Amino acid sequence: MFKKPIIVFEGIEGSGKTLHINYLAKYLKKRKVKFIKLREPGGNKGSEKIRKLILNNKSNLHKVTDLLLYLAARNENLENLIKKNYGKKLILLDRFIDSTVAYQHYGMGIDYQFINLINNFLIKNIKISVTFLNLVSPKNLRLRLSKRKNLNRYDKFNIDFYKKIQNGYIKILNKKKNKYVVIDSNKPISENKEKIIAEVDKLLK
Ligand code: TMP
């Protein structure tokens, strides 16, 4: 297997993806595996600026403007960090191309072919090794959303919107362009951590 994989964490708000990616980063450090970790939107300097613009509560941007900004932020990461490190270091991504399909297509109804065309143009020959898709039950979603503080512009949709997006993720998973591992975030965190580590260990062998 490819020793410098690209590992992506996907899922809706409150699905536990950031917790798991941070835990995996600690594990890799302990194992002395060289890696970079990025979030989307955000990551490098330019894309963090774009993140602020999109997620700022004072922004009132059209959904297609948001789409183009998410893609612009992705391009900054690809050109400045991902392509340079691809094959040299393991790459951990907190969200990537599936987020755009899930939120902007399945959530907001923007044309799938258009999103795919630009995503493919940007990522070119970059291959994702595994995507951990974090799923959450409606009950836990409601609970976790109600506990969130410092809400940004994308934290404030209603619960039906997040359900629609999670269903979108499941549709993407069913098309299975890459390898996916489902993380059921209603299960104990320790069980999920072990599942993730076992998959990553397989990639590093
Ligand atoms: P975060 O809370 O995981 O940092 O993500 C920020 C928000 O941006 C989250 O609500 C998902 C959204 N998003 C999109 O709508 N499209 C995208 O392409 C990406 C990367 C994120």
Q: Which overall shape is indicated by the principal axes computed on the Cα atoms?
A: globular
Oligomer: single chain
- CATH class label: Alpha Beta
Q: Using DSSP, what is the number of strands?
A: 5
Largest beta sheet: what is the strand line-up? Answer: 2-3-1-4-5
Q: Measured on Cα atoms, how large is the radius of gyration?
A: 16 Å
Largest sheet: 5 strands, parallel
Give the bound compounds.
Answer: thymidine-5'-phosphate
Distance between the termini: 7 Å
Number of helices: 8
The CATH homologous superfamily is called P-loop containing nucleotide triphosphate hydrolases
What features would you describe in this structure?
- The longest helix is centred in the middle third of the chain and has 23 residues, at 63-85.
- The model has no long low-confidence stretch (mean pLDDT 95).
- The chain is built from 8 helices and 5 strands.
- It has a single domain (6-204), classed as Rossmann fold.
- The radius of gyration is 16 Å and the shape is globular.
- Strands 2-3-1-4-5 form a 5-stranded parallel sheet, sandwiched between helices.
- The protein is α/β, with parallel strands linked by helices.
Give a quick set of tags describing it.
205 residues, binds thymidine-5'-phosphate, 8 helices, 5-stranded parallel beta sheet, Rossmann fold, alpha/beta
